[in-house]
Amino acid sequence: MRQLTRRQALSLGLSAGAAAFLSGCATPGTTTVNTAPTIGAAPPGETVRLTYWAWLKDAQKVADVWNAQNPDIQVDVVWIPGGNDGGYQKMYSALAAGGGPDIAQVEMRTVPEFLLVNGLVDLSRYGADEYAELYDETLWNQVTFQGSVFAIPQDSGPMGFYYQPELLETVGAQAPATWDEWADVARELRAAGGVYLESFPVADASTFTAFATQAGARWLSTEEDGWVINMTDEATLEVARFFDAAIDEDLVDTANAPYSPGWFAAAADGKIAACTSASWGDALIEGISGGEGKWRVAPMQRWSLENSFGSSFLGGSTAAILANSKHPREALEFSVWMTTTQEGIDAMITNSGIGWSPAKDEIGSVREGAGSDFFGGQAYNTEVFEPATRQQNTDWSWWPITQQSFNILSDGFRRKAAGVSLVDSVATAEQQIMTAFRNKGLTIRKADS
């Protein structure tokens, strides 16, 4: 893998000094892996063994499908804890020691953090660009930096509106088409019987971020010499004002985050009528006691802003080739098979319960037109989520301290109970995130107003 050039490092937001340092060093603990020539394919007849670290359940069963057809390239899966639950630390430690797997599951929002330690293979050097047309454009953009591809999209989470029609019908409502309609339904439900339309997780900024993305926000972008931040744009403030009002009017449940034990109990008891969430939420909602046949799925409600979008993504991960891989070509070949072929995607859905397929034209045979008994026989995957993938904010991109930024924003949102508005918390978070960037040697400035 080649190193980041000084120009590329600067484009990721490193200060000039930090960029000079990074462009002249390898991954901590390694020697010349980042400056070595590309690694050739294994000689014919030689068996290559790839190691794949992932927190997906039963991922070895996915690899076994590949292994049966590719005796010269065998994949061994090692289960690790989720990224922020210890998985990423394990990867960083392995990189620093000069080891680690060939392939690792890395969330899309975390890819830039691995770039800052030269931890990922530049897959463009191994032909990744020729596969770009197989993938959803929005997802491909999130793994591409300065024209180089640093991971392969593995799964994602286009969003929709899960709801209980019978509860909405008690106030003569249907699934809302806009967020303004959503607020009207929420008021009517609260007034009629104390039912909440939805929960709003103040302790998890990822949901708010997805809503802002749908509204047209683009919080971070890059210039030649660093990052530009804009978290107080009209799209973000519109979302913050909207949920400030929803919380102030007691239209949302802030005590029980979606999919928490309290949320499941309330949903089963008919006290929560809906959930705006990702495609992978279907499996969780199916865990609601007595819920079979009572739930349906509708397109995500839209913001009224001119530059808003029909849906958003919540979550998503990649198959990243780590810097110390001795077989990046073969690792890329397996990763593309796993994420674009019907065989690979079907195996991922059936065995690992992945979110939405990242492939542009392959959602998996088990999701094509299939109705669900739990959702009243509705073929919601093709009716709702497949179109949602084409209604995304393609300008959104992640940044090197995404998780820290989420923590900062969540800490601010928790202060809503003490009277601090979400609008004020967003503005404060923006300043704190700029400080966090600079503390890491990253260059950042506020966007021109």
Automatic annotation (TrEMBL):
Highest taxon of source: Bacteria
Keywords, in A-Z order: Cell membrane, Lipoprotein, Membrane, Palmitate, Signal
Record flagged with keyword Signal: yes
Protein's UniProt keywords contain Cell membrane: yes
InterPro entries linked to this entry: Bact_solute-bd_prot1 (IPR050490), SBP (IPR006059), TAT_signal (IPR006311)
Leader peptide range in chain numbering: 1-26
Protein name as it appears in the record: Extracellular solute-binding protein
Species per Swiss-Prot/TrEMBL record: Labedella populi
